Amino acid sequence: LEGATPDRDISLHNFSTRLWEQLVHFHVMWLTHWLFLWVGAMPHLCNLTVALCSHYDSIPVSTSLLRDTCGMTSTDLTRHLARKTNKQMFVSYNLQNTDSNLTLLVKHRIKEEMEAYPEKF
Asked: Fewest 10 Å CB contacts: which of 30, 100, 109, 112?
């Protein structure tokens, strides 16, 4: 893979935080040109969305590969992260509480982690 070093072909990064009295886990898998982010409190894969930047529109193109009730939250987060990282982004958002305030806290926590560990994103 062009630009990849043998020890950077795949990178894993995990972190957790307590949001609204709920322990939320984050799992990041970095590959050369794309990222996978799993967010959840329990080990479930309830949905999966993908987004990537396009030369034709400022809003990343996205689609749901596996959908449940968190689908729009996952899609919005995927688009946001694809725009921020300029990489193809896969997100599985598995929190049953879809309150927009919780989603903002999740986004903020991801932003903090991206700033602290940019090499993981």
From this structure: 100
pTM of the shown model: 0.86
Taking all residues of the chain, what is their mean pLDDT, rounded to a whole number?
Answer: 88
Say how many C-beta atoms besides its own lie within 10 A of residue 6's C-beta.
6
DSSP one-letter string for 32-74: TTEEEEEEESSS----EEEEE--SS-SSPEEEEEE--TTHHHH
Three-state secondary structure along 5-32?
CHHHCEEEEEEEEEECCEEEEEEEEEEC
Query: pLDDT tens, 65-105?
Result: 987 655 578 888 999 999 999 999 999 999 888 788 998 99
